[in-house]
Amino acid sequence: MAALRTDSGWRPAAGARFFCTAGRGLEPFLMREVRARLAATQVEYISGKVFFTTCSDLNMLKKLKSAERLFLLIKKQFPLNVSSVSKGKIFNEMQRLVNDDPESWLSAISIWKNLLELDAKEDKLSQRDANPLKRKVEENDIINPKKLKTKQMQELQESRECQLEKQTDEATVEQGDFLTNREKSQEAFQNDAVKAVAAPNQKDLTFRVSCRCSGFVAKTFTAQIFIHLNDIYSVVGIPVFRVPLASRAYIKTAGLRSTIAWAMASLAEIKAGAFVLDPMCGLGTILLEAAKEWPDVYYVGADVSDSQLLGACDNLKAAGLQDKIELLKVSVIELPLPSESVDIIISDIPFGKKFKLGKDIKNILQEMERVLCVGGTIVLLLSEDHHRRLQDCERGGIPWNSKGSHTDEPGIEKCLNPGEKTDLSDTVSSSAETSGQGDLDKMPPFGSLVPVDRYRVSLGRTGAFICRYRKSPSSAASRLAAVSRFQSSQGSCTALKAVVSGSR
Amino acid sequence: MKLLTHNLPSSHVQGVGPRGFPLHLQATEVRINPMEFNPDFLACMIPKVEWAVLLEAADTLHLVEVPKGLTEGYDHDEKFLRQMHHVLLEEDVLEGTLQCPESGHLFPISRRIPNMLLSDEETET
């Protein structure tokens, strides 16, 4: 197979196809990142996964910051035809999924081995022809009917999605179980009978049934196969790394999820020589992610809590970034900084009861606005409550379009066109709201902060919004200009629901 | 706390709240932190420097070889840049104080971190 061996590792010359999982809401960031970082082509977002083709080597792949996990694609095809709830038919379909086209397995495994630079002399795999593989795979399909039946019925009734891990072994005859597994549940999998009969000279690749093996058991297998079957597709892949990309080697104690921290930093348009402040830095996750990606920048983190600052200190040391990021013990509502001295502010506004809604969030934004340079950028992570509260504040001030009023729309729409080439600036959510009437001179506390865009993201159990603002020169005319710029950037968004209704 | 951090808050003061600037630095423990020389980064930072404050702070730390100000073509003057690199980024105050010139209030610097909270309220999160 055509390949390039460079200093940083093997690269597939013609490009290999991968897919990534990503936290909900981060898909546009990931799509942009694979294009920018990996020069990826054929980038598609389908049902929670981003598929792409790239020639990058392992080191570049490892740098992906907004993905959860990365997989090498073995095959992606139409969803299983489950026109009837017939166990037999479904099993046949699954068998076909696995057995058909052994070439795709062989070629993917070969790419995978090369990427990871596994023992090159073990090239027996690529020399095997397709048929023995097919036969052995069929022998391996020993299905435990009873177990499967109950699970299968449950799965079909509850959801069409199931995560299936299959063991394949080209070198030995083994017994394996076909099992279905509820996608996010920990307990559904009950494989009690993986009998690995190891052939004496087995050196070839083996794949284990992924079932939370740990310790010595896990180490006897080289890797796992990942299968995801849902209504949109059937996808089979090999995880490229053992550890999810989202789990960073350089972060000792995670605060905010690293993927979200990086996504926020990527929105902030950080340039060399900028002064970047996180006035509620906590454990410093955002600054760490930013400093790793954009090193020639002056970073300052601030917090009121000793324990958080200590944790941040630790994190900085562990990442080797203690010289790149300065820490201050100061309060975000009284920043010891002159007005208009900071280029960029990125912050995760703390959720929860500690921050009283209303008064505090306004004061915080007010102070941030004061220290920010004109033209500077603020990127905030807001809980749903904070976000709603800010919308209430905004109603008192800048109208979101020049006509002056909107229909109140519940919630925020995130505009995303799956499968299309998406530029980040097209992915704009809009919130149409009732504007406070009339007076542009009645300035809300953050009057010159113009909203640019916002993205709804998932934090696991809760949701949140990444919101970007820019500080415009404070005059009514330029505010209006900024508002109409914001509007025209939303024009192409098909999910836009800003409705102008009448006057007043 | 680096001298760059001490300096930036003091630059182009514009009626900042209850605090006065510049905060007078006193250091009881200083460490030298070697850092990678990055002339492009310095070229961005140097124009923002408030020189009077920098010189006073450098004097307090008994630093020698401190440039007195910007000279023509400073951004190509490697000696100048390296000196600024050292003064701004490599002198690290581990322990010391910052004094407000108006109120006389002393803000402590401890373990490299200056505590500039005005009120005594510390919220543990």
UniProtKB/TrEMBL annotation, chain B:
This protein's UniProt keywords: Cytoplasm, Nucleus
Record InterPro entries: Trm112, Trm112-like
Localisation: Cytoplasm, Perinuclear region; Nucleus, Nucleoplasm
Superkingdom of origin: Eukaryota
GO biological process: rRNA (guanine-N7)-methylation; tRNA methylation
Primary location group: cytoplasm
GO molecular function: protein heterodimerization activity
Cleavable signal peptide: none
A Pfam family of this chain: Trm112p
Any one annotated GO CC term: nucleoplasm
Family recorded in the similarity comment: Belongs to the TRM112 family.
Protein name listed in UniProt: Multifunctional methyltransferase subunit TRM112-like protein
Organism (species): Ursus americanus (American black bear)
